[in-house]
Amino acid sequence: MFDATSAVPPAVPPAAPAGLSRYGWTAELDRLFAPLAEAGLTPGRLARVDRGRADVLVADPETSGVRTIRADTRPIAGAETVENPCTGDWVALDLAAQPLPAVGALLPRTTAIVRKSAGKASEGQVLAANVDTVLIAVSLAVDPDLGRVERFVALAWESGAQPLVALTKADLAPDAEFIREDVERAAPGVTVLVVSAGTGAGLDELRAALGTTTTALIGQSGAGKSTLTNALTGAEVMTVQRTRDADQKGRHTTTTRELFALPGGGVLIDTPGLRGVGLYGGEGLAHAFAEIEELGERCRFQDCSHTTEPGCAVRAALADGTLPQRRMESYLKLQRENAWIASRTDARLAAQRARLWKLRSKGSRDRVRP
Questions:
Q1: Burial of 135 (0-12, 13-18, 19+ CB in 10 A)
Q2: Full set of structural domains in the chain with CATH
Q3: Which residue stretches of 126-233 are H helix?
Q4: Where does the chain have alpha helices with state H?
Q5: Which pTM was predicted?
Q6: What does pLDDT average to over the chain?
Q7: Within a 10 A sphere around the Cβ of 192, how many other Cβ atoms?
Q8: Using one digit for the tens of pLDDT, what is the confidence trace for 61-84?
Q9: Helix, coil or strand: residue 255
Q10: How many helices (H) and strands (E) does the chain have?
């Protein structure tokens, strides 16, 4: 693939493609795309990726809007999984490729929601790229799991985007405002809104919070993501299935990540329900548990483990009740997971380097063999 960062762009960038501006195209993308345009490629945004094929939004000069092109998105040879095309990516299309137009390059991502792949693998999985807001749907049909909320918030901060929590199905919870207070304590610095797609309560406030940028909607199955997507887009773009009456758990309605235009401007990327929320990195944890990080800076020792050291500000806060024990336990648990991921990733990269070295050594021996 063509590297959009390796070429020097012209001093005056070309005009933004008509129609793509409402999907997030910016002057910076103009600048980055200039050498790709000179190579005969066409800009577009991935709206859906599924099994090596993608729906790509490109400018339609006849209507000044956009049209959708079906394209080939072959994985990048030798690239990590997180570097391959995903919904939300800005791409350069080779329209002349056969039998389908093909993605010739990815433009650099500004943000990316990356979680640990399912199972024991240490690789990351990109849920959406170039996102400004991560909208976390949490159902009020059952008591929210605050530990899971903290995981989602950490995942959102890790992406580089701004988290926003929507407590859905408010019509099923008479104590919704009290629950919001609990969630706000578990997500300091994050806006928490109470909404109901069924009654329309809180939707205007949510639309105003999202603005006209790119939002990715994440959450567990059954959190009401598909219903919320339909409400925000003003159309039945997603099939809605009922949750199980016994435990209010949902079924997987959404199977791929898909990008939709919002009536007031901006776009929404709906994602499949997440059963597991494995973090893939550590920066988001510091944001999600900012108060613990701040307490840690007041400890007597810089490398304080917050267990037995004297002068520990974290243990003092636990003792006087200003820091809830549940929140500290959640913080430590996610720290351990991040440490495990880091060790597994280092081991995987070391194994890859060892295999590459063996292949190169074998090739060298073959070349000098008489």
A1: buried
A2: 20-106 (2.40.50.140), 112-270 (3.40.50.300)
A3: 146-159, 176-186, 203-210, 225-233
A4: 27-38, 146-159, 176-186, 203-210, 225-233, 283-288, 290-296, 313-320, 325-368
A5: 0.84
A6: 84
A7: 21
A8: 888 899 999 999 876 665 667 888
A9: coil
A10: 9, 13
